[in-house]
Amino acid sequence: MTIKVKTEKDLPIAGATVRLNQQLLGSTDTAGVLITTNEKIANQKISVSAIGFKEKTLSLSNKPSNNLISITLLASTNVLDEIVVTAGRKPESISTIPSSITILNQQDIQAQTNITNNLATVLGNAIPGLGTSTNKATNSGQTLRGRAVLVLIDGIPQSTPLMNGARDLRTIDPSVIERIEVIKGATSIYGNGSGGGIINYITKKNKDGKKISGQTILGTSINPFDPKETLGYKLSQQLSGQVNKWSYTVSGSADYTGLQRDSDGLPLGQTDGLSNSYQYNGFIKIGYQIDSSSTLTGFYNYYGSTQRAKYISKNGIYGQSPTIGVKGEEPGKPAGTPYNHNAMLTYSKSNLFHSTQLDVTAYLNSFSSMNRYVASGTAWYGPGQTMINSEKKGLRLNLNTPFQLFSISTEVTYGLDLLKDVTYQDLTDGRVYIPKMNMVNFAPYAQVKADLIENLIFKAGLRYENATVKVNDYNTIATGPNGEGSIVVSGGNIPYKATMFNAGLRYTKYDYFNPFVSFSQAFAINELGRILRRAKENTIGNLETDPIITNNYEAGFSSRFSIFNISASYYISTSDLGVNLVDVGGFLMPQREPEEVKGYEVTLDAQLSQKLSVGGSYAYVEGKAKMDDGSKIYLNGSRIAPPKATGFLSYKPNQQLNLQLFWIHTGGRDRFALNDKGKYNNSEGPISNVDLFNLSGNYNLNKNWKIGFGIENIFNTSYYPTVSQYRALDAEYVKGSGTVTSLNLHYQF
To answer: Which part of the chain is the TonB-dependent receptor plug domain (predicted)?
Structure first.
């Protein structure tokens, strides 16, 4: 008996689950077909379900004469049924996952990139719980729920948790991103560095079946009030298609950011700035349909973004006057991300055994982060410029097997992650700042999902981390002439072993109240480089290099009724050993104390009419560390963002025009006292309220041509980004950008 499942457009639906009288028969292959030997079809009920489609049940009175049953599924219109692959390494509906999740779809990304092409700003403006953008080339301080976030591209790790370069949010051009999935709270599903959650950029792939289609984007941006030298541009070309068993997507883009000026027209300070920066991206993804149940997919992405500044910083005075840019040339090499290479090859096979889905992935990431030149280093002798280098090679084996257990629909996702991560930091003159940290990680895992009773979904899992970091003998960098202050450190192996656990429940019966509770853990070898570079002991074994084990407790719900969509969650995140970077002698060092971070998030939107919708969010987070004497101190601004509220108003008067007004509010926070020198320690400065408004719009000229336009900081508000305020340093007391207008012309064929 052959069962074929398809869409309304006669396209096959792969991975559809087929049940006979609630007993699992199997899943369809990539051709949308399931062949079963079960002949007892007459007078039975067949149920078919697939992610993104409405479930369908057929009552068959007679056995089909041609042994073929064709079933058409309708696309789901429920906004809660968006698909996410990151949470469990397989396609799942958000409404069934016991976690807080935010998805930015293609429309969301385009609306935000009409305003700015900076992904750090896009995410900071749109994701509740994530810190707002620094308006710089780095995303320092943009934590998620007060902890480090692991950034991925199609599952490939971009973050460098062994030594955080804070450039991982800007590692790909938005034009090649299909959607962005954000899984909040501790999670071990992808390993090292996800104490606050995961941000996964899912890249585009060909879907329309045409032999060739494409999109061309030409864009420009300018400060309308003080336009001199502020002109920027963007060019992007994308081609995709399908020929026989092959599919492809190819894209290239170039982006230039002109001089950034504040609301008074003054050039912004250039410390890690974006003025006069160039961004390039090259992308190719190729798929091959081996047979009806097997596919091979490969992709490569190059990203580079460096600043060729025409201005240098003239320091202001913290709390009094801003650091501004003045004409001049910065010594050293251009700062930014000279290169970020990602390559991946995936083999997938459905119905391997008992409807098992197999995915085997090999990947490579090679990443370089160039810090700015400093005339006089605080951590080393003389001038210098450092570069963080990281190379990751990984292999992922992932399987998913559905089965019936005592009449309970169950599935298990299981597999193995292998990762080799080599990270180090040198000065461009050859001096070693952080020695090579060679990590090898072996991590088996298993996740179970079961429908305990109707509409009650249970998920639980284990992951065993078995990692070793090898460090050769090295000398800490000299702090004075002739090697003064350097310490000889004997290297060795640092072993890390830990078992991570997660469990959660979600009740899905009612759209108007879809609650969940969960417990999850995460593992991180975070900021090991900072510990090694400031070693005071002469052997690795004497350094405090223990991992961070984060425990996340969370309860929340989503709700959809009438014209409203609501979601809310409350969480508590604890760790026996945290990493709070504190000011020690003028540089930041990790403080390893027990920590507790807690907070809540609320989102609400309403479809007031076919033309008008409104919505917003509010996120609050607070964190403290417990000292040896039992006292508790606040975690500083590098970890804990101030309260953030967002709002939007969307107006679509007709099929041609769509307008969206966005509001972003960051609240005040004042937690720390002046030190004995009458100044604030690094990252302990007070934060004042900031309110910004942005506008995005699209106008469809015809089926091929479209104009996108945006205004960032509509009212030319004078403000300091939160990082400029809490860092409490003269050089980094830089204002935010004034008004910038953007215009983009899109051509699709």
So the answer is: 95-198
